[in-house]
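Human: Cast an eye over this sequence-structure pair and say how the chain folds.
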Amino acid sequence: MKTKSIYAKDWLQLHPYTAIQPSDIYFIKLANRLFEACTLHELSETFRKKLALYASAYLEDQLSGLGLWQSFTSEHKRLYGKRLPFYPTHSNYYPDEVNEADLRFLIWNAWQKSGLASRYLYPHAPRIAEQASAFFAVLDKAYEDAPENETLTQYFNTSGNDADADRKLTWLFGHTYLTEPSMYPYISHTAPSDRFIMPTGPLALFLHEWIDLLSDHSGWKKIKGLYTEKPELPTHIRDNNQRIYRNFTEGTGGKAIVYLNGYEQLKSFLTRTLQWPDDESHTLPQMKAHRNFILMANPEKGILLAKDICEYIADADNPMYDFHKAQDNAFRLLTEERLCPPDLLTHCIRNSLLPNARIPATTDNVLVQENMDFIARHSLLYYYRGD
């Protein structure tokens, strides 16, 4: 007799309730079958159990009408014109059923976010494909006889009372099979109010964006903090930002970005072009140790500064661009928190200024070019989509 490895308490940790539902026994047994089919023995047993639980919960979601997977893939298609990043969905892909491509992404997402990979995990690594195939063999059979979890059917369609809404949002934010991987490093020190300003899940969606996808959101409008308007800048700050932008673009011939080689060029731009006072409060002497700088101006936000990344950005106006350094380092802009300010990174992606970015230890930069914005969302979360 095979030893049971995954228990009810493990399954319930991925659910918004504490009492076993009629369908749960089936999915716990299924998770154990998936754990037995997990061949990634180079990874910890704890993580392999997580993968089995996530795969079982994915089937439960598809059958029960919870809507997490459908929301993710429909939003990905709206943003990028395809249901999944990295993995093609051919004619044998059925959005409402179990798909091997879905499982490849599910495994990659959890593994990449786990911290167990020594470097960025190549989505087409053979071990991912092999594991997805093994899981698919189990889930394809289970699809025919697995029960629905009626408790989860259209679970987010209504908010309920304040306590119900809080429980649902807490679960959605960081405890579902699709959002837990992204929030795992942060969840223990995230305040309840932070849930509304931190994006979560593979697409770095804010909770109100998830709710818009999962429900008709009429009842959710009353939940304080969930839908918040962007605060309006005080007049004096807005006027100052516009003045900086005007000076900036007048000094650059209308361009909103400038590349500066060394501190002396930075200081000169600040004092001559922006007309800032030539004193230590305005000339940023703490930047003397850095080799190059990028300044970017916005009429509403003012000015941002990035340092030591000029070599990686293939802009015709950037004399410091270095093809070989870009090959080795441009991918870092998409995956390292705080290395590149979000507005600058968005500009680089939209204007194809990172053509040599490639996943470390691979030569595949096509995959990166086709999924660049997704990679940034998935890797950086708040540091890409936060304001």
